[in-house]
């Protein structure tokens, strides 16, 4: 653009120089013609006055035979004057014609000069406007580059933050798994293995008492039987926590209905009002299992912490997502529950499960505790 502007501007300058010089040349010619005309007019005026001196217009001599005055012949000097006047008159006409032509031509040149100056002014205005637009474009480009740089930095920061967040979640998941492994191992060691060892020791004693003291042997056997029942309860509890009895062949709607009914039977003091959507699809096995774990966590919290008397449970489907809502009329939940509760608490576990599901969820207080979460079926 600037190169084109320079070329056009230089061309206009050349044309301005040419027409200015041409204007000056013809203006000089015009002035010369005007001066010559002035001189001719002055000379003609002088000749006219001189001619009058030599003229014989006052001679009224008449022929005796005619009442008409006789035309007096021109004098020689008058003839010369007339000849010069005629010549000067021709020159005057030529100069007047030349002046008229030059005036018209100068007007034409002047018009071209004005047009060229206007063109240069317009071109300069265009360049000024172009410069402004160029500055605006440059500023806009700079702004875009800065925005792109900031966006890139934000994306990089987000990637780093997401990576850090993911690392934190993975660390928490590994810690919870390690905690669960230790917990289950401890239960097996203290409440199963140790009890079996104690019972074996008691059985060894029974062998010594079975004949000498049948009554004492019966007491020991009854004690062993009771401990075995307790062990079976402990084992069943651990199997349930490990989802050993989970059946993914049951339709999710039926599973939810059975879960609510079993909870109501076990905790009769808590009234549950539930609504299940007409159309519910079965999630994939991993998500089905995660849903069961979440229900165990949230309902376990209701029993242990909420002191609720009424619970409302809803399940429906929206935009290919399974949506669950649980609310109770209990004491509510602290806003900083994730900070004050232990890292292996049920809510921390639920948080990691929901993260792995890519779920949308929120837990808040509203005349009790409200839990809402949703995730895709697959």
From the structure above, extract its key features.
378 residues, 10% strand, rod-shaped
Written account of the structure:
Helices cover 71% and strands 10% of the residues. The protein is α+β, with helices and mostly antiparallel strands and 378 residues long. The model is unreliable at 58-66 (pLDDT under 50). It has seven helices and five strands. It has a five-stranded mixed β-sheet with strand order 1-2-3-5-4, covered by helices on one side. The chain is rod-shaped, with a radius of gyration of 60 Å.
Give me the count of strands: 5
Oligomer: single chain
Radius of gyration: 60 Å
Report low-confidence residues grouped into runs of 5 or more: 58-66
Structural class: alpha+beta
Assign an overall shape: rod-shaped
Strand content: 5-15%
Total helices: the number is 7
